[in-house]
Amino acid sequence: MALIQCPVCGKRISSKAKQCAHCSTGVDGDMHSRMRIAHIQKTQRLMNQSFVAMTLFIAGVVIWFWGGEAAEGIRVQAGAVCFSLGFIGYLITRVQIVLHKRKSI
C-alpha cells in the first residue's frame, strides 16, 4: 500500500482506496486524465484571477485620471486602492501561474 495524490483535491490518500476520503472522488478509473483535468481547471482559475486583478488595476487608473484633471478627495483614495490592489494581485497571480506551469502533470 502506498500513498498517492488525489487528482481532484491533491491530498494524499491510500492507493487501495476506492474514493478520496476528502472530496469523495472515485480513484479507481483513469488517474492521469483526472489529474490533467484538475491541472487545466487550476490554470483556468489562475487566469481568471489574473483577469480580475488587471481589471481592478485599470479601474484604478480610470478612477484616478477620469476627466483629464488631477483627482481630488475620495477619488484619489479609491483610485489608489484599486490601482494598488490590482497591481499587487496581478503580480502575485502571475507568479502563481509560472509556478503552476512548472509542475508536471
Q: Can you describe this structure in just a few lines?
A:
By secondary structure, the protein is mainly alpha-helical. 61% of the residues lie in helices and 6% in strands.
Could you characterize what this model shows?
With 105 residues, the chain is mainly alpha-helical. Helices cover 61% and strands 6% of the residues. It has two helices and two strands, in the order E-E-H-H. Strand 1 and strand 2 form a beta hairpin. The mean pLDDT is 86.
SSE arrangement:
Layout: E1 3-5, E2 12-14, H1 31-65, H2 74-102
Antiparallel strand pairs: 1-2
Helix pairs in contact: 1-2
Record field, number of beta strands: 2
Instruction: Output the radius of gyration.
Output: 21 Å
Query: Could you give a short account of the major beta sheet?
Result: 2 strands, antiparallel
In terms of DSSP E residues, the strand content is: 5-15%
Could you spell the SSE succession in H and E letters?
A: EEHH
Fraction of residues in H or I helices = 55-70%
Number of helices: 2
Distance between the termini: 22 Å
* Strand neighbour order, sheet with most strands: 1-2
Unreliable runs: none
